[in-house]
Design goal:
- With about 210 residues, the protein is mainly α.
- Helix content is about 60%, strand content about 5%.
- The chain contains six helices and two strands.
- The two termini are about 35 Å apart.
- The relative contact order is 0.17.
């Protein structure tokens, strides 16, 4: 594939999506540094923007055979899930109304904002990491993979999470401020030695030497 700036990976909509996706990833990675209300309010603003920008992404066809390389591992996913869970506390779970399982059950389906966010983060971070490699072929297939997963998986996760977050902000009396009663963070018990965060810190250290 010839590298040129007319390619869809350099399209205005792609660049704008990269900016918003990066902001969302930063929000999740730094959730422990901000208040619960600040986190929820930022998520409320970023989620619809993320959905809009994803829906405007240009369509491409994959070039490579097989799956594109993934960078976010199970440990990274669990780190983000745990960080968001600790931030949301008792407000993490919500009742899901758009779940195929409801047709076969009389019981309500309980969903989790932290799991939704970790799923969204995984696809966004994989795409952003591939995009930074700056190989048009890799960027192209990462964009194809991102588009596919948006329509099949995490696009719905955005919509579901936004509904739950909107409810909390519209009914602030439902917000439970349980942060002051929280004990040691569960994040301290996670093995992050093979995580994308640890690898990035090692790369930064190598670059400084």
């Amino acid at each position: 594939m010839e590298e040129n700036f007319e390619h869809p990976v350099y399209d205005k909509n792609t660049i704008e999506f990269v900016t918003v996706a990066n902001e969302f990833c930063i929000l999740l990675e730094s959730s422990g540094k901000i208040s619960k209300m600040d986190f929820i309010e930022r998520a409320q603003k970023l989620l619809p923007l993320l959905y809009l920008k994803a829906s405007l992404l240009p369509k491409v066809e994959n070039e490579f055979e097989g799956e594109i390389e993934k960078f976010v591992g199970e440990g990274d996913w669990e780190y983000i899930r745990t960080a968001v869970l600790e931030k949301m506390g008792a407000n993490d779970e919500y009742l899901e109304v758009f779940d195929d399982g409801m047709r076969d059950s009389d019981e309500p389906i309980v969903a989790s904002i932290s799991e939704n966010f970790a799923d969204i983060y995984q696809d966004l971070k994989d795409f952003l990491t591939s995009y930074r490699i700056a190989s048009v072929e890799i960027m192209n297939d990462a964009l194809w993979d991102l588009n596919t997963n948006f329509h099949q998986y995490w696009g719905q996760s955005i919509v579901n999470s936004l509904r739950a977050i909107h409810y909390l902000l519209a009914h602030p009396e439902k917000l439970e401020d349980d942060l002051n009663e929280q004990g040691p963070s569960s994040l301290d018990r996670l093995d992050m030695s093979q995580s994308i965060f640890s690898q990035r810190q090692q790369q930064w250290g190598d670059e400084e030497e």
